[in-house]
TrEMBL record:
EC numbers on record: 2.1.1.171
PANTHER family linked: METHYLTRANSFERASE
InterPro entries: RNA_MeTrfase_RsmD, SAM-dependent_MTases_sf
Name listed for the protein in its UniProt record: 16S rRNA (Guanine(966)-N(2))-methyltransferase RsmD
Keywords assigned by UniProt, alphabetized: Methyltransferase, Transferase
Gene3D superfamilies: Vaccinia Virus protein VP39
Gene Ontology terms for molecular function: 16S rRNA (guanine(966)-N(2))-methyltransferase activity
Gene name for this UniProt entry: rsmD
Top EC class of this enzyme: transferase
Origin superkingdom: Bacteria
Length: 186
């Protein structure tokens, strides 16, 4: 069972994509991750971009805890359907769910840069493909200056190759999961 950990819709259950091999971020990881984000004052009023969103658990947790808005992007119809069901069931506002590959979505210039970006690609995604996604994210203005980029990978993965202007702020490991924190300095 996947549920929202805390905030205005804390405890509410989320549906997960049917017939998919998605790997939802565990409740334990989300609880620790959001504790860290909140302690740094990064959540209230944040604009969130959730790439490879799956059920939308990361962005919806952010909304529940005070983020101002969120855009969720996934190429899987099943994932997008689950995310849209979750948005409707939770009754949250200012959330948009987009059916698109992340690469195609990021190829366009950003309308409004996001202050908080989650990237949770499949663990099997090659490092060079992830590097391209992160470069497009920054190069096309999707991450606001001073914004945070959180990349979830296997704890056995090497550190992501950060695009120019992004520096590693932290890395947190939770069993099989590692979350790399980057910050756009310019």
């Amino acid at each position: 069972m996947t549920r929202i950990v805390a905030g205005s819709v804390g405890g509410r259950r989320l549906v997960t994509p049917k017939g998919e091999t998605t790997r939802p971020t565990s409740e334990r990881v989300r609880e620790a991750l959001f504790g860290s984000i909140e302690s740094q004052g990064l959540l209230n009023g944040a604009t969130v971009l959730d790439l490879y969103c799956g059920s939308g658990a990361l962005a919806l947790e952010a909304i529940s805890r005070g983020a101002a808005s969120a855009v969720l992007v996934d190429a899987s119809r099943e994932a997008v359907q689950a995310a849209r069901e979750n948005v409707a069931a939770l009754g949250v506002q200012r959330v948009t769910v987009v059916l698109s590959s992340v690469q195609r979505y990021l190829a366009n210039p950003a309308g409004t840069p996001s202050s908080l970006v989650f990237a949770d690609p499949p663990y099997a995604m090659p490092q060079d493909e992830l590097s391209g996604v992160l470069a497009d994210l920054v190069g096309h203005g999707w991450l606001a200056a001073g914004g945070r980029l959180l990349v979830e990978r296997s704890s056995r993965s090497v550190e992501p190759v950060w695009p120019a202007g992004v520096v590693r702020h932290d890395v947190r490991r939770y069993g099989e999961t590692a979350v790399w924190h980057g910050r756009l300095t310019s």
